[in-house]
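Problem: given the chain below (219 residues), write out its structure.
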Amino acid sequence: MSSDPQPSKQAQDRAEKAEAAAIRRRWITLGEVLAVVAVVISGLTLWNSWSERSSSQAEKVAEAKQSSTKAVTLILRAQASGNGRTLELSPASAEQSVQSQTIRFPAALGADPAETTGEPRIESGWFEAALKKAREKAGMPDDSRGDERLPVAITTQYLVDGDAHQDVAIYDVGYTISGRWLGGHSVTLRGISLVSHGKESSVQAKLDARWKAMLPPAK
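Solution.
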């Protein structure tokens, strides 16, 4: 009795077809995986690019704000002229332009406030006589032992990019004094040093307290 080879061939064909289908499915699955990976990589690339741009923009905004804050914050510097009789004042930042100033002195000196327009400065003649009397009354030495200090309050009106601003601050005026009481004294201005920024309403009180603290203690 002979066997029929046909079923065996059909089974072989089915197996080959199943294997081919499985291979196609594997390729399709691999293609899908690769497509998903490509999408993920593309998404990560876009996110990284967006993140870098956002970070860069944030840094630029922060730098701009910091630069603007620095521009608005007024710091004065001084240059002595006229053999130390005058301190020519100017902003430390070139972006600022001083329009006018009011310089106030400790109330104990009895010196009136001084006003300037267009030429910011401090002149020794505004307070020299009053300062000499105050030093004599306090028993301070005839000659300076280094730079002496006189606190003043300076209210400055200034411009930054055309916008008006106001600054109120206490500065120490550095000076030296030499001579004799009977022969007269000479006050020479040296420079200024920022003490603190403040408010118009309270700066005079702070100025007076600072001057009082600088005087020698009562004997």
